[in-house]
Amino acid sequence: MPTPVPQIPLHHEASTSSILTPSPRPCAVPQHRLGASPLIYGTSCFAQLYNPIKAHWPAEACRRAIDLGINTFDTSPYYGNSEHVLGKALASIASTHPRETYYLSTKVGRYGPKKVEFDYSKERVRESVEESMRRMHTDYLDIVYAHDVEFVSVDRAVEAVGELFRLKAEGKIKYVGISGYPLPYLLALIPVLHERLNQKLDILLTYCHYNLHNTLLQDYIIHFKDLGIQTIWNASPLSMGLLRSHTACPDWHPAPQRLRSAVQDCISIVDKHRQGKDLAEVAVKFAMKWKGCEGLVLGMSNAKEVEQNVSWWEEVTTLKDDEEQGEVEDSVRRRLEGFAKMEWASPPIDDC
């Protein structure tokens, strides 16, 4: 009989002292506050952006995630057909896992890779929210971000976020946030949004800023908190597919060649410690150990990956992680230490 995989507690701070076992029927999530699980299910993988997936995987993975305590799904219309796939998957399990057992997080404003494919107009923001609700078969969204705000002007960002706050007042969304990559820009933009809209953002999402090759986010957390941002999510501990041993990095990845070369060295370091061990395990566990953020957004293609991540979470949060993990992590970090504060350009230089 396989070893049961423990359920993730709702609160990050409680996770080191109690790991709950799965209940026969999932509980409703809190509605008076955001009670998102510390692991967030990132569903861009449903659009096969990183690797192929089979048709039955999303429903199985969503069911398993909720059963094990992962109660929040993050998506975007920019992620191909991810919203459609997620909506279909959740609809297929609705009899046992109804809408009140999970949160939905999506985004507006970005609909393609280039700046010309952004639309932050208030009309498009409202339309986009309505489209997302239809795709995911719901009459409300828990969290909506203005997606990758660094690609548009400040005035456009104000317009889009202002419309999100109006939709919040109407009850169509519950929490308003922004997402983006360059931390200095986000730090400069947030007080402008607060002043011009006379409202504070509920949540911030950034990515590729706390992982094995980049820990810049830990320098900025206190400043975001000082601005009143109470909930911050760290996405992509695998740095958008860069930090994996057995799956090639996507061709579109913005990492410079010298970082890619260093990662190849790290793959060899990991394999030398234990043949066949995946750099991804080292990377995910490294991000899980950090308590600086309220949520870690992880892409998971199938139920097996869900179980694996929950198992790693238990190892990390109950201090059961083995000594070998610490040794290999230290070796990898030494090889990547020259990149710890490095950001690549966003928008890309050829799209400025």
Automatic annotation (TrEMBL):
Pfam families: Aldo_ket_red (PF00248). It comes from the Eukaryota. Residues 1-22 are annotated as: Disordered. GO terms for cellular component: cytosol. Coiled coil: none annotated. GO terms for molecular function: D-arabinose 1-dehydrogenase [NAD(P)+] activity. GO terms for biological process: dehydro-D-arabinono-1,4-lactone biosynthetic process. Residues 38-321 form the NADP-dependent oxidoreductase domain. This is NADP-dependent oxidoreductase domain-containing protein. It comes from Linnemannia schmuckeri.
